[in-house]
Every structure is written in structure tokens, then in C-alpha cells.
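Hi F.,

I've been meaning to write this up properly since the lab meeting, where we talked about keeping a consistent format for the predictions we share between groups. The idea is simple: the sequence comes first, exactly as it goes in, then the C-alpha cells exactly as they come out, then a line or two of notes. No screenshots and no reformatting. I'm using this chain as the first example so we have something concrete to point to.
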Amino acid sequence: MPVEVVADGHDHSVAEAVNDRSYAETFLVVAEPTPASLLSARRLARLAATQRSPRVVVVANKVRGQYDAERVAQRTGLPCVGAVPYDPGVEDADRAGRAVLDCDPDGAMATAVRSLVPGPQHRDGARVKLAVVGKGGSGKTTTSAVLARTRSGRRTLALDCDSDPNLGISLGLLGQLSLPDQVVIADFEAGLGTILRLEGHPVDVVVVEPSAKSLDVGRRAADSVREADLAGWWLPQTVRDLDDAARVRAAFPYLEPVLVPEDSAIVNAEREGTAPLDAAADAPAIRALVGLANDVVNTG
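Output, unedited:
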């Protein structure tokens, strides 16, 4: 079955990848009929004109007036593939943290976006790569979510390429996090910022290396977790020998860390772009991580 990739990005990511067909075959620019949004789209149009770029088109979003879509096409100089009317139901869905398709699947916005790309016919096994981009607030994330969930007959991979990711909410995943028997894994940013903002939510795993810098950050994270009375496992990575293990235990004398040995299988998998669990399920580091996963899930 053909695979469709829908990537939610921003205008800076397009500027970097507009001449790289491995990133996307079509860039769908979402633009409001406002000066700031049109300026951002026009910059992209000029960039596309000077590069051997993929196909770049625009959709007029939050259209209120008779000439809004025409204005978007004229000001950007891009082919306009459709117009999406302003729909207050989108704001209602955002406030509720729900997907537009779950709140109002037959609403004006959802109906218009579904018709934007009418499902191009490709040979069997072909892959469609569509990047949805635009200025912040233009509606690109909601557009990406509706497109990703309505690609009939295709397996769809939805990628959130924005530095401030919210695509999961627009896809309707937020409500699933509280369902019973759900395991949610969040890969947070480096450092202490996320831990300091958790406000009582548990920390399951903190990863450190047996280096001076990493252990120092880990100690500060440990202090924050203990002060907030949060649960947690400490996961020292790339442990080479008994000295590394002793160094880690000395840094966290009140914890029994899960030691993950340095393992070339993980390095090789990363070089090949494959999942370590698929490439070397029996490798020592993978076995240690699988054991940790079982402990976390069983502890709940």
C-alpha cells in the first residue's frame, strides 16, 4: 500500500529544504489574507523561483470575504489550490484540546481541507511526500492534521517538524493519553527546564552519561525530582567499566541506577538509520533498556 508522508513544518524549514526533493515533493503553503502571513508566503515564492525547487502551491485559509482567495494568489504569486473559509469551530476545538475532525467532521474547515488534495493516483508502492508550511497562526497544523487523517486508502505518516510541536493535539491524541492501559513515552528537551515545569507529574527515567558534565546535570535533576517528590529511575548510558559504574553510584548514593553498557550495536544502528531494537535485539545495551521498560510499565 502506498505511504503518504504529511509533514507539519514552518517557513524556516522550507527555506532550508525548498531545493531538496528528499524532504518533500510538494510544499503546501497555508496563508491567511493578512499582510504578515502573505509576506511570509511571498518570501517562499521568491526563494522557489531562484531554486530548482519542488512544487510549491498555496492555500488561502480563514477566508472571510469574496476576494480573499484571489488576494492570496496575487500577493504570493503561487498557484492557489483552494480556499478554506473561516470556521469558528476550529477555535472551539483548539480550546478543548481536540481534533477538528472529532469535534465537527462536517464543518466548513474540515470539508474544505479534505478537498484540497483529491488523492492523486500513483502507481502501486509510490510514496507521496507533502510538507505543509506557513507563518505561525496561519492554520498549517490544523490543515496538516486534517490531511493526515483523511488520506483514504493510504497509510499515512504524520511528522511534526515544528520547533514548537502541537500536531499530536490536532490529530486528536491528547484525549488518548488518559485512557486506561496506555503507555506514553515523551522524549523531553535536554537539561532541567522540563523537570522544573512538571508541577507534580512523575519523572520515570532520567538519562545520564558517566561524564563530569552529565553527572552534574543529573545531580541537579535528582535534587529537583526529590524536592518535588517525583518518582524516577536513573539510566546511565555508555557505561564502559566498573570505574564508570562506581562513578555513577557515587553521584547518586541514594539510588540504584540501571546501567546500560557501551554497545557498538547502537552506534551501528544509528549509522544505518534503523531502530536498535530491530537491528540487534539481543545486544547487551538493548537487553538493559528492555528490562528497564518492563520495570517502568509493571511499576505503573
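Notes:
The domain at 178-299 is CATH 3.40.50.300 (Rossmann fold).
Residues 120-124 have pLDDT under 50 and may be disordered.

If this format works for you, I'll send the rest the same way.

G.
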